[in-house]
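Dear Dr. K.,

Following up on our conversation at the group meeting, I've run the structure prediction for MarR family winged helix-turn-helix transcriptional regulator from Xanthobacter aminoxidans. I'm pasting the input sequence below exactly as I used it, so you can double-check it against your construct before we proceed with anything downstream. Let me know if the numbering doesn't match what you have in your notebook.
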Amino acid sequence: MTASRAALLIDGSDTEFRELVHDMLAFAAAIQEVRNRLGGLIGLSGTQYTILMSIARLTGKVPELGVATLAEHLHLSGAFVTIEINKLVAAGLVSKAVNPSDRRRVLLSVTPEAEQRLAELTRVQAPANDTLFGPLSGSEFRAMRSIIAKLAGTGERTLKLIDYLAPDGKIETAREQVSPLV
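The predicted structure tokens came back this morning:
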């Protein structure tokens, strides 16, 4: 058994759980490649594209959009986001301004060049997203959105659990049992 929680088992079997994980891996690989290709169309890596899109979408919706808020939104480390933002600034796609509320922080915004590239990208982006999520009805999309939002934050806690159970990275010395809610 690869899972033990009753909610993950169907008739006492983990078969559907394993099939779900494999389907999710296939979808994650597809969505990652779509992101990379969309970024490539405007001269960016997939990660840079995601960061740029997020800044464009959050500007005006999130007061004082800075690195920490953006990193939290994307479930990435602040240090990594800072490195990628600096590349976008160097490319003339992101502007940083001193935050008047806290001069140690910066406010992020996209430049007119970035707005133009993102507007042009919609010619490919919209049909790509429509196709990627095409099988879903509106209610299925909303349900998936809710479920994925719940799962998005579990990765870091799960990695900490694995490190606790197998601190030396070897199965031979892994701890035997732990509460599944650790």
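Two things stood out to me. DSSP finds seven helices and two strands in the chain. The first strand starts at residue 94 and ends at 98.

Best regards,
J.T.
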